[in-house]
């Protein structure tokens, strides 16, 4: 799903770009790597909490990068609501 979002240009990567997208209201969902630094985790989660954007910790930076066809990525923001809903459904376990 992340690869499709990347091809559709509905994905933003990089800490500064993601924080800017969260502030401007473009980010609908933020994905954070499990091996991100403590400073990055705090900065991104605080911004997401303040601006009411859902934030999920998913996998390592290399797996996150591989999912979008790039090198390691620590943080991604999905800017399309439909992609964000689909990814959220995949992340939440079914009862």
Distance between the termini: 22 Å
Radius of gyration in whole Å, from Cα? 12 Å
Order of helices and strands: HEHEHEHEH
CATH architecture: 2-Layer Sandwich
Structural class: alpha+beta
Number of helices: 5
Q: So what's the CATH class?
A: Alpha Beta
CATH-defined superfamily: Ribosomal protein L30/S12
Number of domains: 1
Helix content: 40-55%
Using the coordinates shown, work out and report the CATH topology: 60s Ribosomal Protein L30, Chain: A
- Walk across the major sheet and give the strand order: 1-4-2-3
How large is the share of residues in beta strands? 15-25%
Characterization of the model:
Helix content is 49%, strand content 16%. The protein has 95 residues and is of the alpha+beta class. It has one domain (2-91): 60s Ribosomal Protein L30, Chain: A (2-Layer Sandwich). The chain has a four-stranded mixed beta sheet with strand order 1-4-2-3, with helices on both faces. Helix 2 (15-24) packs parallel to helix 3 (38-50). The longest helix has 13 residues, at 38-50. The mean pLDDT is 93.
What are the defining features of this structure?
single chain, 95 residues, alpha+beta, 60s Ribosomal Protein L30, Chain: A, four-stranded mixed β-sheet, globular
Annotate the secondary structure layout.
Blueprint: H1 2-7, E1 11-13, H2 15-24, E2 29-32, H3 38-50, E3 54-57, H4 61-67, E4 75-78, H5 81-91
Parallel strand pairs: 2-3
Antiparallel strand pairs: 1-4, 2-4
Helix pairs in contact: 2-3
């Amino acid at each position: 799903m992340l690869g499709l979002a990347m091809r559709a240009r509905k994905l933003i990567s990089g800490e500064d770009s993601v924080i800017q997208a969260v502030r401007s209201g473009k980010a609908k969902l933020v994905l954070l790597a499990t091996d991100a630094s403590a400073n990055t985790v705090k900065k991104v989660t605080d911004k997401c909490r303040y601006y009411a954007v859902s934030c999920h910790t998913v996998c390592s930076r290399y797996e996150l990068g591989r999912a979008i066809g790039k090198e390691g990525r620590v943080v991604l923001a999905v800017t399309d609501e439909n992609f964000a809903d689909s990814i959220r459904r995949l992340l939440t376990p079914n009862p």
